[in-house]
Design goal:
single chain, 224 residues, alpha/beta, Endonuclease, Chain A, 9 helices, 42% helix, 18% strand, DUF559 domain-containing protein, Restrct_endonuc-II-like
Length: 224
């Protein structure tokens, strides 16, 4: 069955595909000597079938990925599973904690535990994950994900990607569609105007920005 990096990629999670196909085999099996295939001997080989492919169960996939990926890459995957990124949320905070606790205490487990502690619900994109982690890594307070701000004119809450509510700072990561789609441009303009009326400072971030420059802007706005 497909597991690890291969399974995560095929399931649409934000991970760079590795050249080898990762498969899980029962502990009693020896290694599989097939070119471009990497086998992982596992005690738990429960599986699910999606679109005709047999996948290792989610906990197994995550424990294999933890052997392969950095903590930051793991957090991006976990954020995607707990947020609206390309899918309804597949995991809750509680379920993730249970998966980590129930997993085998083998190579990669401590890394998965660390990533689990850093993962957050309601993250809309892997770029937002990396931005949040960069701010924390720089020694800044952790921003709140998708903080609700009531806009009277809209009769609804809006949810900046990241926010420091105590300082009224909103941070928005803007991908290409924020500039190419007329409807999105108008929506963003209205959102930022309303946030400004309420005294919020909006820091807009794109892929062209150097992370150090964003950290500096946030630090200046927080006056820390």
């Amino acid at each position: 069955m497909v597991t690890g990096n291969s399974a995560a990629y095929l399931r649409g999670l934000p991970i760079k595909l590795r050249p080898e196909l990762d498969i899980a085999v029962p502990n009693e099996h020896g290694p599989i000597a097939v070119p471009h295939v990497k086998s992982f001997r596992m005690a738990d080989t429960a599986s699910v079938t999606k679109e005709g492919l047999r996948f290792h169960h989610l906990g197994g996939i995550l424990h294999v990925i933890a052997r392969q990926e950095s903590v930051e890459n793991l957090v991006a995957v976990l954020d995607a599973l707990m947020g609206p990124w390309r899918r309804p949320a597949e995991l809750t905070r509680t379920k993730l904690d249970q998966l980590v606790a129930a997993g085998p205490k083998v190579h990669g487990w401590s890394k998965l535990k660390q990533a689990g502690a850093l993962a957050r619900e309601n993250v809309a994109s892997p770029q937002e994950t990396r931005l949040r982690l960069a701010l924390v890594r720089a020694g800044l307070p952790e921003p709140v994900v998708a903080y609700p701000v009531w806009i009277e004119r809209f009769g609804a809450h809006i949810h900046p990607d990241l926010a420091y509510p105590f300082a009224k700072i909103a941070i928005e990561y803007e991908g290409r569609h924020h500039f190419e789609l007329t409807e999105q441009v108008l929506k963003d303009t209205d959102r930022y105007y309303e946030l400004g009326r309420l005294g919020w400072t909006v820091i807009r971030v794109t892929a062209l920005h150097e992370m150090d420059s964003i950290v500096l802007k946030v630090r200046e706005c927080l006056n820390v």
